[in-house]
Request: fold
Amino acid sequence: MNISDKANKPADKKKTQSKISKGSGIRSVKKDKKGRLRWLWISAPVITIAAIILIVAAPYIFTSSAKAAIIRIPPKATENNLRDTLQRYFDPEYALHTFEAFRKLGRTPAERFGAYEIPEGSSPLQAARILSRGKQTEITLTINGVRELDSFLPRIAGKFSFPVDSLRAILADSAFMQRFGLTPEQAPALFLNDSYRFFWTASPKDIVEKIGANYNRFWNETNRRKAADLGLSPAEICIIASITDEETQAQSEKGRIGRLYINRLHKGMRLQADPTVKFALKDFSIKRVTKAHLSAPGPYNTYQVAGLPPGPIRTTSTATLREILDSKPSDDLYMCAKEDFSGTHNFASTFEEHKENARRYQQALDERGIK
Reply:
């Protein structure tokens, strides 16, 4: 090798490396292009499918209910029942999408007997999931001073899936009511003023048993003993409490009024309670009980019948029951509404004193033109 060859060798090496580098760059660019093309070939169908799915699913996901609603699915419901119910509460398009989504989730209406709340703003898919997999919505039943239980029973049944006659039958069952120490006539005593929670699927028996459990909780051994000390049963205390609640809204007087009626009862006197006359006449609008009213027929008119009426004349509260059970002994035998119309009463232990109280009250009624 001559000197000129050695001189040229490094240059040739660099030239060769440059060519190799250029060749690699070309191959790299070609490879990248092929990779991008391959990615496009693979991803394009995926993107297309995803777009189609999104378009198809959009009505089920991106629309929402304009209001909240409780959807009730009765026992043995059909798909037509569910579709009609949804259309009753929602616009046709939303109802259709909810129904279709429900079907796709693989449930049948007959499997989902119950009541389910669809919150406002729910998508059809969310609504369908609630209907197919969700928990039932609880119903609140509030009892507060119900005067005629028989006329209130349809309102109770209207909140549930059973007919009212099945509820009446339970309360008329003497053997069943005896579990609570009550007769069918005393059934209103069972319904203490309170709020109770149930599922729509509850049976009449479920409802009465839950309400009865609340009654039994109040009438524990301590309160039963207090009633016995007054010479009365829990049911009889409930009857007196119902009359007391009709006599006054003043909680401070309820114990005293209840004790007054117990005093009359023990002395063999007729209760002569005006609220029982209104109950016998089924006219609660009467503001002034007159002699014409006092002849009202039936076992609930305590002017005509001795002793307690057959059952309570309204539902009562645990507060009133406690006031009576814890009331102080008294000589009260008479009472009359105060002439100032404060809703409170003048009490008396003698008839002469009572007549004077009654005279002042009658005069006040006349002055106001109340008949």
Notes: The chain is about 55% helix and 10% strand. Confidence is low (pLDDT under 50) at residues 1-8.
